[in-house]
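Key idea: predict the complex, not the pieces.
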Amino acid sequence: MQTSFTPAQLADPHIATSEQILRKCVHCGFCTATCPTYVTLGNELDSPRGRIYLIKDMLENDRPADEEVVTHIDRCLSCLSCMTTCPSGVNYMHLVDHARVHIEKTYKRPLGDRLVRAVLAAVLPYPGRFRLALKAAALGRPFASLLKRIPPLKPFGTMLDLAPSKIALASAADTPGTHRIDGVKRGRVAILSGCAQPVLRPEINEATLRLLARLGIEVVVPEGAGCCGALVHHMGREEQALDAARRMVDAWLKVKEEGGLDAVIITASGCGTTIKDYGHMLRLDPAYAEKAAQVSALAKDITEYLASLDLPALERKTLTVAYHSACSMQHGQKITTAPKLLLRNAGFTVRDPGEGHLCCGSAGTYNILQPEISEKLKARKVRNIEATKADIIATGNIGCITQIATGTVIPILHTVELLDWAYGGPKPAMLEKVR
Amino acid sequence: MRVSDQIAFLAPRRSVLDRREAIIADLADLLPPGCLVSDIRGLVPFETDAFIAYRQLPLAVTLPETTAQVAAVLKYCGRYGIPVVPRGAGTSLCGGAIPQEDAVVIGLSKMTRILDIDLANRTATVEAGVTNINISEAVMPEGFFYAPDPSSQLACTIGGNIGMNSGGAHCLKYGVTTNNLLGVKMVLFDGTIIELGGKALDAAGYDLLGLICGSEGQLGIVTEATVRLLARPEGARPVLFGFSSSEEAGACVAEVIGAGIIPVAIEFMDKPAISICEAFAKAGYPMDVEALLIVEVEGSEAEMEATLTSIIEIARRHGVTTIRESQSATEAALIWKGRKSAFGATGRIADYICMDGTVPLSQLSHVLRKTGEIVARYGLRVANVFHAGDGNMHPLILYNINDPEDAARAEQAGNDILRLCVDAGGCLTGEHGVGIEKRDLMLHQFSQADLDQQMAARAAFDPQWIMNPSKVFPLEGRPAA
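Result:
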């Protein structure tokens, strides 16, 4: 596609990168077909091609973001379905990331919006604060419907709806240190404890540690880690995201120095997509570019890593699993078959819900910031999942788990929880009622 | 804003431009919230379709949700003489959906309901914004499909397919849109809603449906379509045939068709096209051949075997170097995914314009060779990927759109190639339509007398010439307004 940037504009490395991305787009329109918001809203402005055009126009003219552009970029889930579809290899992810940073720098959001975003950015990435907030939410739940009737406060009402009714205590799985293995050591990995996930579902990392320990993999929970930065990254808060990235890079590389590192294990694919992009995010930071690329290369989704370990095939079970492929898993990281093969190998019958490429509407903080579209996508996703008549749902991302759980009674678990159970771990508490 | 100076849009109607604010306010009254784009920023993404060499902002974009709303907008535009440009998914390769400064775009992208699936009569009735592939997907569990399959079928709409009488790889056996369309509901320039055809194969009276199909949005706007469904074959298998020259591959195609063999599809790719498609789809195309045919056979095992045996025999006579049958459904899907993504995937290496000339099969090798010479003369590169079985060529002329001289050369090369196709006994467009791209070449294909008759038919539907008026007919020689 034609671009018109001046040499002065192109001297900015961010613009130069975006220009290269834009040049690849030939405006063929294939991306519109698989974009969840275009499919839902039927307006090209809410499609990747429309957004690419809006971003191009804004950047070329060196213009601050305006309401029209912000509206349509905000509606983007960053599910990256378009990148799976795009024949010419347009890196929409890096383009929209750039646009979000530009918006954050040049656009003043209405007060209510700013407030919600500030709260999300200040709470979600910090497990302690998040746990406290959830406790408060339990008390605030009766006010959810009232808050939702006041437009600027609506997102707070949605947050109350999404908050779980029971909040787990901090898990031992998150305590920094090296987790011992049973038997012969076959490898050494570090794990991302994460931020929201250990508060919402500590069982996921607990299952991961148990399973890896049984497989002879030493797991290190590094000192000084925390949120990977994905949540704020998607809100365009570049500095906060890059700080988080640098902190994580330091933490993991320290583990590597101390005793070698085969992989950085991630149990939330949303985080995985961002960590695998650290190399790009920090490419302009001379002190970190190389280190970040190292970490990105080490980053592995837990299912990606388990697939390399040759787990034994198990007897067929009676349970049928609907596998929901998180967007960050299938589009962001292009991991499509490994989780299903692992589940099948462990004896589960696996079914693929229809329209599997469409997002469930979770998308980080999207379900809080864009509740209407999110609700529609959730309903569509649940319809497709329930049509499989599966006993349980497996997925690889905490956001999807939280989102889909509010729409169906079918239990939804992380793939690794099922694998841990199948390979000798305890039956997940959530499945007590399932035969 | 145009890259080259060649193709002109109609001069905008001052009377319309001057009333912009009032028109937008009136349109807002006719439509539900969220169905009108009038903000200048929001209009920019609608300035072009997949023919990105040309761009023009519209006055406004409407996105109606019902036939009644389409009728209301058209009635309003008809009354005030406001040009209208219909838009499906905006995937036109000839600028069929490119707006003009004084035009209201009517986008059908919110009309995506499947209204009726009637398996007893083997028909589906859908709204115009339903994508081509959605129709097949909706009836797949019952073992049916909708046959015409433009390469953009993932995204393009049935409304757009009807506008351009779209074809596709599998049209060799099943015919193009017009052969699979049974009925339409459409809105005329003045808001009148009419229905043509029905669920039967032939309708009473003149074949108006045949006239509508391929009329490029100039006779009215189709809002619903009833299409024919076909039963899926028992089996289907694409087979790859590699050759050491394009001429040999072209001659092989001519002989297969000449022998009376009709496979479902015969697709051609030359070396540059193969490497472009492989980069995206990783379908395992042979990379050591100069030209590749994807031949799909279908039916029972015995039927596929028999057809393939005859084709292989002919291919051997033309020096085929590689023959590879797809071994699984996954592999077959990848072979088609690569082929169908060819145009988009070209963006990996260059900008392109895609020609759509059709030639008699006996001329295929000759036209391929000449095409290469023409493009080389302009100092450009070409990738050929097309529906060889029906002689529908798609040379992709590769160029750099950021270089105005390169863009002008590409356009001239394209014009030369299309003239070549017409001179070889073919025509300007096989399936993409005339749009704005080939409009000024129409006189190379038709005499003024031919065009006068076509314009008379057009005027019977749209006496004011407000429907997609910059397209199809050269600006000179039109009847005085």
